[in-house]
Amino acid sequence: MAETGFHNVVLSGKKRGGSDDADRNDYMVAKKALATMPPSWEDPVAALANSRHEFGEHGGVNMSIEASATFTVMEPETMRRMFDGELGPDRDFYIYSRHFNPTVLNLGRQMAALEGTEAAYCTASGMSAVSSVLLQLVSSGGHVVASRSLYGGTHALLTHFFPRACNITTTFVDLRDLDMVRDAIVEGRTKVLYFEAVANPTLSVANVPELCRIAHDKGAMVVVDNTFSPMVISPGRLGADVVVHSISKFISGGADIIAGAVCGPASLVNSMMDLHQGTLMLLGPTMNAKVAFELSERIPHLGLRMKEHCHRALTYATRMKKMGLKVIYPGLEDHPDHALLKALANKEYGYGGLLCLDMETEERANRLMNLLQNYSQFGFMAVSLGYHETLMSCSGSSTSSELNAEEKALAGISPGLVRMSVGYSGTLEQRWSQFEKTLTRMQDSSLFPKN
C-alpha cells in the first residue's frame, strides 16, 4: 500500500530547488533542532507563538496563497517517489491540492499548535472532519460509544447514517456516569469513545482525563469535539487521541466561513491521506487555499476574542442568576461541572462563551428571542456560535432537532432551552441594558422560570 509521507508538520523546510535531495542537510538540521525544543503545553497562545511562521513569497509578513490545484515536478522520477510516499509536504513536495496544499498545511500547523497535537488536517466543514475521522477509525461492523448530548448533526450521523450506510453502531451514554461509560465499551469491538468537551447545547463538561483512561484501558481511541471551547480546554493535552473542530465557529469568528479540522497523531493524519484507504484523500473534503489563508490570519487573535466572549458570558450569567432566571453556565459555582471545568481549563481563558436560559417552553423561548432581536437589539436569532454579535436559538427546535423527544429528554434538552453565544460587540453595559429592556417589556414575571 502506498502511503504518502507526512511526518512532522511543524518542520521548517526551505523551498525546494531542481534536485529532489537539495537542502537535505538543512532539513535534517531543522528537524534535529525542533526535536529538542521544549513544547509549550501550558498555554495555547504560547504554543501558537512557538510554531513555524510562513512568510510570503517575497518576504511578506503574511504567507502567500498557493492557489494551484496541481504542482510541477522538476524531474520525471520525482512524481513516482511522491506517490510512493518517499517525498512529501514535509520537504515541500506537493502532488495535488486535494492531497496537501502549502497554504492549507500552514493552517494545519497552527491548529496542531493550538491543540497541542503532533499534526492536523483542515477540512471543508466540521461535519466532514467528524465523519472522516470516525470512518478512518471504525470499520464496518465496528462500534462507537458516544455522549447522549451531542450536536444534532453528529447525533444523526451516528444514529441513522452510519448504521444504514456503514454497518457501524453506536451506544449513547451519560458521560457523568463513568460506570455506564465503562460498561458500554466492549473491549475488542468498540473502536472509539466520542464526546464533546463542552456539550452542545447543555454545556455539561466532560471529565476528559478520566474518560480517556477508561477508554484506553479497554483499547478504544478517544475523539473529542472541542468546537465549544477552543483555548478554554485542550483535550489533546488531557489524554484525547484526536480533537476535531468546526472552525466555522469561534476560530473563524466571522460567521462567514465553513471549515473543520482533525488534530491528532501524524500517523493518523498520514493514514487519512493514504492513496488507497484514506478517508480524507478519497472522500475529498478539501479546504480551499484562500479560505485557509483567511483563517490563518484570525487565529493569532483567537485568545483575545475568547477571553472577551468568556468574560461577558460569565458577567451576564451571574447577573441573570441574581434576577432569578434559570441560567445554565459552567462558570457559575452552582453548576454541577464548575469544579471540574476549573480544574481542566487553561488558566485565564474563562469558562466558555456560551450560556443557556431555560424558558421551559418553546413559546416562552421564542417570545424572549423575538424581543431580544427585534425590540432591544441585544442579539440575533441564528444558529452557530462564536460570532462577534450574540447569537440565539432554541436548541430543541433547531440545532438539536434531529433528536427525538426521548433522546432530548435523556440529553437534558428542555423544549424552552435558549442557547446564547455571547458576542463582544458594543460595550458590556450597553448590551446588558438592552437585555434588561427586554425583561421590562415582557412584564409578565411568570414568563420567567425561577431557579
UniProtKB/TrEMBL annotation:
Which co-factors does it depend on? pyridoxal 5'-phosphate
Question: What Pfam families does UniProt report for this protein, alphabetically?
Answer: Cys_Met_Meta_PP
Coiled-coil-forming residues are none
Q: Which residues carry this modification: N6-(pyridoxal phosphate)lysine?
A: 249
Q: Which UniProt keywords apply?
A: Lyase, Pyridoxal phosphate
Q: Which PANTHER family match?
A: CYSTATHIONINE GAMMA-LYASE, TRANS-SULFURATION ENZYME FAMILY MEMBER
What name does this protein carry?
Methionine gamma-lyase
Q: Give the species this sequence originates from.
A: Actinidia chinensis var. chinensis (Chinese soft-hair kiwi)
